[in-house]
Every structure is written in C-alpha cells, then in structure tokens.
C-alpha cells in the first residue's frame, strides 16, 4: 500500500492510438528486469570461462577423401586403367565407408598410434594430456589373454628410477630397465626425447585393452558422403587434443589406402596363381595336340587341308574362343562356390574372379575376406565360443548368402550362353561331312589345336594384365583435404552460455507470469466490463503525500488528471460531490489514493474534506500527521462531539479538512448504519465541494456497502502484482449488481516497464532525473534484480 516508506505512484494516461504492439509490450516487460538479465548473462559467461579454463577443450577435426569409383581416368592413365580394371574391386562410396569404418582398419590405427595408452601430467586441479609429448612410452612385452584396463601413477625420480603407486596407495621404486608384470602381462617403460623436461613430475598412464580402444574409436569416427553426385567421403572426429584428432584421421586414410592396395594385390595375385596353373596344364596339352597334327600328316601323306576346310576352321575358331572364355568363367564360379560353401570362417585365400565382370560379386568377395580376417584376428585374443564372435558370424553368413545368390544368377547366364555357342558349332559340323575321311580327321585335330592355342593366348593376355595390375602404383583413392580443424567449441561454449544467460531469466519471468495469481494488466480488469479511470505507476517515496501545491513534477499532473476524470464521473456536478474509495483487501493503496486525490482537489480551489470511515484500520490521520488521540467520527456518532470539534484543517492546504476516526468502536458496521452518518454527509454537502470517503476493504467486511448509500460515485483501487485475480469476479459482480454507485477502477502501483508512452512519461523523465539519488537507483536495480514489487 502506498503509505509512509512505501511506493510513490505516478499516473500515466494510456495512449491507445499509438500503443505498442503485443510484441513490443512483452519485450518492454522483460527489459524492465534488465538487471536480472545482466547478472545472469555475466554469471553464465563467467561459468563458461571457468569451464573452458579447467575443462578439456573439444575440437571437431575433419578430413575429405575422394574415392575413385569406376570412372574414366585422365588421358595419361586411361589405357592403364582399361587394362587393370578387371582386377579392381567394384567400388561404391557406401562400400568404401564401410571399409573406412571396418574394425580391421580402425584396429590398425589404434596399433600404429598406440591409442590404447593415454598419458597425462597430474596437476593440482586438472591433468594435462601429454599426447605427442609424453616423457615415457608404455611398451607391452607380452599380453595375457585376459587383458584388464589399468591406471599407473608414475613419478619420475631421476634419469634411472621412478616410483609406481598402486590403487591402494602403496608406492614402490623401480628402474627404467626393469621388466614388470601385472594382471594383463609383462611391460616396461621407455624414455622419449621429452624425458628430461619431466624429471620430478608425476605422470598418470591409463592403459586399456586394444580391443576396447578399437571399439571406442569406432564409435567416435564419423564417415559420411558429402554429395550424391561426387564420390567424396568426409571423415570427422571430436577430440580434446587437436594433434591426436588430426593424426587419427590422417592415419585412417593411410590404413585405408594400404587396405585398398592389399585388396588390389590380393585380387591380382589370385588371378596370377589361377592363370599360371591353367597355363602350365595347357602347355602340355598344346604340345601333345601339335604332335598329333604332325603325326597324322606324316602317316596319311597329307600336306594341307582344302579351302572348304579352311573356311570351316576360320568360322569355328571365333566361336571356340568365346566358348573358351565361358568355360574359364564357369571354372571361376565353381571355385567361388567351393569357397563360400566351406564352413571355415578363417580362410582368407579367396579364389580368383578373373573374367567375371560383375562389380557386385567382387565387392561381396572383398567384404567376405575382410570379415574372415577380423574373425581370424579375434581368435588371437578370445576363445571361439566367446559371444563376441556372434555378430561377425552373422555378417559372414549373410555375406555368403548374398554371394551364393549372385553367382547363381551368373552361372545360369553362362550356362545358357555356352549352350548357344555349342549349338552354333553343331551347325558348322554338318558343312564338312562330305569331305574325305582323312581330311575330316585332320580338320578335327587342327580345331583342337586352334582351341588350345586360343585359350593359351587368352590366358597369356590375362596374365600380363594381372601382372601389370599387381605392379601398378595407381591409387584408387585421393586425399582431398588432410585432417584439419573444422570447429573449436570455445566460441560455441560462449554462445551457449550467452543463450542460457538470456533464456534462464526469460524462463523465470515467463513462469512467474504463467503461475502468477495476481492481477498483472489493465486488460485483465477491463475484461470484467468495469471501466478503468486511472493507472498509477509504482515509484518509491518516503512520504505518503506526493501532491504538492508548487510541484512541477508529473505526479501533480497525474492526480490533476484523475481529478478531471472525477468531474465527468460526477456528471460535471460542481459541489456537494461524495466519492467513496475502497478496495478488495488491505494494502492495495485506497488510503493513499484518497489522501492524494483530496490534496489535488484542494489545490484546485475546491473545498474538500476526507472522512476516515475505515473504523478498523485507519490510515488517513497518520498520512496527514494528525493525532489519533483527538476527537473523531466515532465521537460524533455517539453524540460526544460536534462536527466542528471533529473537523481538522490540513496543514498542507487551507481548502482541505480531515475527519479522523477518533476512538475505534467495537461494532463499526452497526455504527455506520446510524442515521447520523446521513445527516453528517448532508451537512457536509452544503459546506464542501468534494467529500471523499475512505472506507474499509469491501471483500472482507460490508462497511463500504453500508456507507455507499450516501455516495454519488465510487473508486475501486486495484494494485498490480498484489490484488488477486480471483477478486476480479467479485469486482465484476459488484459492478453488475450496482452495489456501489458509478463504480470505476483505479489501477495502482503499475511497474514501470516501458509499455506506457504518453506525454507525461517524457515530462516526468526530464524533471525527475535531477532528483534521483544513488540510493534510489540502487534500490530500484535491487528490486528489479530480485523481482520485487515494492
């Protein structure tokens, strides 16, 4: 309630035509609490600074790799690529991503960079990662099957000795030349080039199972296709050591290229082995058939065959060459069938795919080889009955099924082609039936010779291609961007802190507004249908009387505006006006409004008297520094004093008189029903222009309704963030049932949040600026920071 040591209020007319938008009003209400936002933002940024200072930084490192997936090459490489193309596995970006993230490749990266060992220098608050600059290297001499992760706290005592602290806090000294043993195997420490810089310091070494390190790295590396129209793969990893992140991605590319080269060599090597075996067999067969030709000619005295036979041989030679190729491919398919039907999951000696121009098949075979290699490596660390083998077994089984389905289709197609070629040969057989018997036999022998020669030449050609592929240095991938820093999370952390610093107070204010059961705005009151005649803005003041005769500040103009509204409320009645002032509950500022409205009316030259009819908790007399011990209204009603005896002239203005309560009665409601009240008001109407009745809160007692019989108009005081929303229904009922005459609302103690922009605001800002003290500024900032309404 606006009384002594309570808020000063300023009335501001609301300019509805130039009112701000809902967004602007909402923004203004939030900006009113700028100290809260400022403190939260500074606190969030401070927390972010401390976090970044002590926490390990987070870097996002990326690299880009171009996959050369079966596309035409440059002019200088086109001929070579055409030759070695049959010995390249069919590459697709999706397949290569799987290879990049394959366990075997990642495992090799972990091994090369020794990522299973982590070195940190122990600090007072945080430990510093020593990747790339550790003074020691943890070398495993022999690893046991049951490898357990373990931490070692090493203190370097001097150039020859160190101390080792175990989990129980026991400390032992050892020499760097010693070989030590624990539950995962035997090991020793080796010095690095940085050793001398760490003498006397403690190093924490975290050693983990390489298999576990591989699993962890697998989960951290991301490989994605950059563009569907380009065979570029982007690799990324989040690391708190920038150098380690770059080394991991660069080494991953190296190992991928090694794996690709190994696969190329495997395919070409398998083809060479297959071809050499066939050539060895054919050499003997070709020598034998050549001897048969010479022997037949000698025994039969034949020098050459007829022209008709030559035509037949020329025609059938081409067909036989195709038939040879089909037979070779069928032999390859049968070899692959035997391979995938084998129950052995550890075999990595895959059959040749020579002559099979099917990228899908070669890709599946390559994947099967990779899976069987992983299976074989896992067998070196775990028993075969371990559940860790189950996922790989399932992948091997599904891959073999895919290969079987694929080679089944290829085999059916080759068998069909072979039948057509054999049918074509049968047609040529009929064309030589009329030849002499000896010549027919010679033609048949020479045809066998031609078949062997064609097959031999075909295999020689394939052997040269395979040998060239085996020796080729052409890379099947190209590094577009080596590992580079893409994002450092320091700016992101500050941005997030700034966002939280704004979001947190905004959320608090929104929640406060959402769950606030107090009246917040004029619109809430107006929805009841009750007119709002005045809005009084909250401001602090030590004195409850804020209207002064010579005041040039806006507060005087504000109450003069309320005085003008009162004129229209009384329908321009000149004198004898009786205005009742009440509220729902105590503390809403009804006595403050009655007191200052009385002063404003008196200052305009109107004879004004204020009656203190709140016989339960009076405030008017104390507002005007009038003693409560003197005679008052209760004395008049009991017949112990006259009107002149209870009327006091205010020291603030000669036109203003006050009638206090006097002694507080035990039955105020019954006392206010006395006819003497009516007589008193009738008398005062003839002597005063305005009579203001300060009555008790109407929600609690009926005194205001009882006295309303003598009033002409009523001002119902509602205080922002103090009056309850549930009272709005009560106010609406009183208004609709006309229980108070000409009732209008005065909205009191509105927080200054910038949404009211009438001219008085500007006037007040200019004139009150000089009066604001440092104390009042600090108080105002504290109230806004603590979300206080007073």
Automatic annotation (TrEMBL):
CDD domains: BY-kinase. It is a multi-pass membrane protein. Pfam families: GNVR, Wzz. SUPFAM superfamilies: P-loop containing nucleoside triphosphate hydrolases (SSF52540). Keywords: ATP-binding, Cell membrane, Membrane, Nucleotide-binding, Transmembrane, Transmembrane helix. It comes from the Bacteria. GO terms for cellular component: plasma membrane. GO terms for molecular function: ATP binding; protein tyrosine kinase activity. The chain crosses the membrane at residues 31-52. Residues 439-513 form the Tyrosine-protein kinase G-rich domain. It is found in: Cell membrane. Residues 36-113 form the Polysaccharide chain length determinant N-terminal domain. InterPro entries: Bact_polysacc_biosynth/exp, GNVR, LPS_length_determ_N, P-loop_NTPase, Wzc-like_C. NCBIfam families: eps_fam (TIGR01007). PANTHER family: FERRIC ENTEROBACTIN TRANSPORT PROTEIN FEPE, TYROSINE-PROTEIN KINASE. This is Capsular exopolysaccharide synthesis family protein. It comes from Arcticibacter pallidicorallinus.
């Amino acid at each position: 309630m606006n009384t002594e040591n309570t808020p000063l209020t300023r009335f501001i007319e609301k300019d509805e035509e130039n009112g701000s938008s809902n967004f602007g009003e909402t923004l203004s209400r939030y900006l009113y609490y700028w100290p809260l936002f400022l403190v939260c933002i500074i606190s969030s940024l401070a927390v972010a600074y401390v976090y970044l200072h002590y926490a390990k930084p987070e870097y996002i490192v990326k690299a880009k790799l171009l996959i050369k997936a079966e596309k035409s090459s440059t002019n200088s490489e086109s001929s070579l690529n055409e030759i070695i193309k049959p010995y390249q596995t069919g590459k697709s970006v999706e397949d290569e991503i799987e290879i990049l993230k394959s366990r075997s490749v990642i495992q090799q990266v972990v091994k090369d960079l020794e990522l299973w060992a982590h070195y940190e220098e122990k600090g007072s608050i945080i430990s510093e990662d020593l990747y790339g600059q550790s003074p020691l290297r943890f070398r495993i001499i022999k690893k046991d099957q049951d490898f357990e992760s373990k931490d070692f706290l090493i203190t370097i005592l001097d150039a020859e000795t160190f101390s080792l602290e175990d989990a129980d806090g026991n400390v032992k000294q050892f020499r760097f030349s010693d070989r030590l043993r624990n539950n995962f195997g035997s090991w020793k420490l080796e010095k690095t080039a940085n050793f001398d810089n760490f003498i006397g310091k403690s190093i924490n070494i975290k050693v983990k199972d390489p298999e576990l390190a591989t699993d962890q790295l697998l989960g951290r590396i991301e490989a994605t296709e950059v563009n569907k129209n380009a065979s570029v793969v982007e690799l990324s990893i989040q690391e708190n050591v920038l150098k380690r992140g770059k080394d991991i991605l660069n080494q991953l590319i190296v190992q991928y290229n090694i794996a690709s080269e190994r696969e190329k060599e495997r395919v070409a090597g398998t083809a060479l082995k297959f071809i050499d075996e066939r050539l060895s067999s054919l050499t003997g067969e070709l020598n034998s058939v050549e001897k048969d030709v010479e022997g037949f000619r000698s025994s039969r005295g034949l020098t050459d065959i007829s022209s008709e036979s030559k035509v037949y041989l020329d025609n059938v030679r081409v067909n036989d060459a195709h038939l040879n190729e089909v037979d070779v491919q069928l032999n390859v398919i049968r070899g692959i069938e035997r391979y995938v039907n084998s129950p052995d999951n550890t075999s990595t000696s895959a059959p040749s795919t020579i002559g099979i121009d099917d990228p899908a098949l070669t890709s599946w075979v390559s994947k099967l080889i990779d899976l069987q290699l992983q299976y074989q490596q896992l067998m070196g660390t775990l028993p075969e009955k371990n559940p860790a083998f189950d996922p790989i077994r399932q992948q091997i089984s599904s891959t073999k099924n895919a290969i079987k389905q694929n080679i089944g289709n290829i085999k059916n197609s080759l068998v069909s082609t072979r039948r057509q070629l054999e049918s074509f040969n049968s047609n040529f057989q009929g064309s030589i039936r009329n030849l002499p018997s000896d010549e027919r036999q010679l033609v048949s022998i020479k045809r066998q010779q031609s078949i062997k020669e064609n097959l031999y030449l075909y295999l020689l050609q394939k052997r040269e291609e395979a040998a060239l592929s085996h020796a080729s240095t052409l890379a099947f991938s190209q590094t577009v961007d080596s590992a580079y820093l893409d994002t450092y999370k320091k700016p992101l952390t500050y941005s997030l802190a700034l966002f939280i610093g704004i979001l947190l107070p905004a959320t608090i204010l929104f929640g406060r507004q959402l769950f606030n059961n107090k009246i917040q705005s004029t619109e809430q009151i107006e929805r009841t249908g009750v007119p709002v005649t005045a809005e009084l803005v909250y401001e602090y003041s030590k004195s409850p009387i804020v209207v002064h005769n010579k005041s040039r500040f806006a507060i005087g103009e504000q109450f003069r505006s309320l005085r003008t509204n009162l004129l229209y409320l009384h329908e321009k009645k000149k004198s004898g006006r009786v205005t009742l002032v009440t509220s729902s509950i105590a503390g809403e500022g009804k006595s403050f409004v009655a007191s200052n409205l009385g002063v404003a009316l008196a200052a305009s030259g109107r004879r004004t008297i204020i009656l203190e009819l709140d016989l339960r908790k009076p405030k008017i007399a104390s507002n005007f520094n009038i003693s409560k011990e003197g005679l008052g209204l209760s004395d008049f009603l009991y017949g112990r004093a006259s009107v002149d005896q209870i009327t006091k002239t205010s020291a603030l203005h000669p036109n203003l008189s006050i009638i206090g309560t006097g002694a507080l009665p035990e039955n105020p409601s019954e006392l206010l029903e006395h006819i003497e009240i009516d007589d008193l008001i009738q008398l005062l109407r003839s002597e005063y222009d305005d009579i203001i009745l300060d009555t008790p809160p109407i929600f609690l007692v009926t005194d205001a309704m009882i006295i309303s019989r003598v009033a002409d108009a009523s001002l119902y005081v509602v205080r922002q963030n103090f009056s309850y929303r549930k009272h709005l229904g009560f106010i609406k009922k009183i208004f609709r049932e006309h229980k108070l005459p000409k009732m209008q609302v005065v909205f009191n103690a509105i927080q200054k949040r910038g949404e009211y922009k009438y001219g008085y605001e500007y006037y007040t800002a200019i004139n009150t600026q000089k009066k604001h003290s440092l104390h009042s500024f600090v108080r105002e900032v504290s109230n806004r920071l603590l979300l206080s309404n007073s």
